[in-house]
Amino acid sequence: MAFTSLNQHLDYDWLYYAYACTRKDGAVGVDGQTAEDYATNLEQNLLGLIDRIKSGRYQAPPVRRHYIAKSDGGQRGLGIPCFEDKVAQRAISMLLEPIYERDFMDCSYGFRPGRNAHQAIQAVRNGIMKHGGRWVLDVDIRKYFDSIPFAELRSILAKRVTDGVVRRMIDKWLKAGVLEEGNLLYPDAGTPQGGVLSPILSNVYLHHVLDVWFAEQVQPRLRGPSTLVRYCDDFVMLFAYKDDADRVLTVLGKRLGKYGLQLHPDKTRMVDFRHRPTRQQTEEGGKPLATVFNFLGFTHIWARSRWGKTVVQQLTAKDRFARALQAINEQCRRMRHWCVRDQHQRLSRMLRGHFAYFGIAGNSRRLGSMVFEARRRWHKWLKRRSRERSLTWAAFNQILVIFPLPKPRIRHRPATP
User: Fold this and answer.
1) Nearest to 196 by CA among 351, 336, 83
2) Which terminus of the chain is less hemmed in, N or C, by CB atoms within 10 Å?
3) Percentage of the chain with pLDDT > 90?
4) Closest C-alpha among 92, 131, 125, 114 to residue 14
5) How many C-alpha atoms does 53 have within 13 Å on its Cβ side?
6) 109, 229 in Cβ contact below 8 A?
7) Residue 149 bridge partners (DSSP)
8) Which value, to the nearest 10 degrees, does the dihedral of the CA atoms of residues 184, 187, 188, 190 take?
9) Distance between CA atoms of residues 201 and 352, nearest Å
10) Under a CB-based contact definition with an 8 Å cutoff, are residues 63 and 179 in contact?
11) CA distances to 128, 216, 236, 248, 271 from 136, in Å
12) pLDDT at 231
């Protein structure tokens, strides 16, 4: 059923909770207003925001576009809304979340309460070990957040939400425009990646386009078991038989094209993930078949456990390892004039953050490599200080005795199938 009256929940307590959940240290939008400025007269600001939302007088400001580097050398555009706009988006997102959480399927893990990337990684492992997923479709949607058609998104939202206030607010954000290098642009498709409301809208769209279609139309027609694991717009499909994977790959592009999306021709591929594939297996062009794949920053390979069993091992992907190491090197360069104690605290926080995500069972060697390389970078930039140009490794090891870097820790242990 569709919900026709949701705006009755938009009262002061609801907006105050949305304000409390909004990050206060984020980048400012086009108006330059910070969280501290907004909090100066918080009660009046929130009451005025409620009145403008319900009366229809709210004007969604354009988002400021900022680009960050991608692992493939390209750039990813992020939309940075104004602070008040973030609060309003958070309030609407809190209305939509409990509705769609009852609809979303177990294969979806991104930007959902109680779900995270490590559960998605575990689901991939189970799909291979328990359900015999030996043929993997590693799929990439080209510029997904910039390609969502407004008309299709509205029609999908209309199936569950028809409240005029909520729908009007979503339309205003879709039409708000993007400020880039002083030019105000009005795209005819897409949701600004980085916005508060963007994750749930993207999940709603792919739930209808991909998840429901795969579960209700694709899986009943396959010869063997299959698994879909999706984290927002990143997803992999696992199949027990190659002909099933071929059939899905043939129709997947048509299915996405029907809803305005496009597969990336260079990044979408089929992976032969059978254990120990023969060297004679080649593609039609003579190139060897891919035997490993990356998902959510981890490279999946076959290995042997300490008990001699063949298991799926998940290692830090090389591009993510290089990116983390580059960030550590740049941080050591910027803080080389700090005192050693402050440098140690900052570097230790970066390493603990790395271990918190990549500290998965079987990845100890690459975690250790990260610590080793971090020590080398730290030593390199400490030597750049004028008074420590003769800092030898023996002297640096004495510093590490006083200020030791954190040791690698395994924080996530996948359940044994």
Assistant:
1) 83
2) N
3) 74
4) 92
5) 29
6) yes
7) 189
8) -140
9) 32
10) yes
11) 9, 20, 7, 11, 5
12) 95
**pLDDT by residue (tens digit) across 311-356?**
899 999 999 999 999 999 999 999 989 999 999 999 999 999 999 9
Whole-angstrom distance, CA of residue 239 vs CA of residue 248:
10
* Cα atoms in the 13 Å half-sphere on the side-chain side of 51: 6
Length of the chain: 417
Amino acid 276: pLDDT: 64
Q: Which amino acid is at 135?
A: W
Q: Which of 303, 298, 241 is nearest to 122 (CA)?
A: 298
**Do strands 63-69 and 178-180 pair parallel, antiparallel, or not at all (unpaired)?**
parallel
User: Which pLDDT belongs to residue 68?
Assistant: 75
Q: Is the pLDDT of residue 284 over 90?
A: no
Mean pLDDT of 220-231: 96
pLDDT band at 376 (very low <50, low <70, confident <90, very high): very high
Mean pLDDT of all residues in 160-166: 95
pLDDT tens-digit map of 19-33:
999 999 888 888 889
Task: For residue 13, give the amino acid letter.
Answer: D
Look at residue 375 and tell me whether its pLDDT is greater than 70. Answer: yes
Burial zone of 155 (CB within 10 Å; 0-12 exposed, 13-18 middle, 19+ buried): exposed
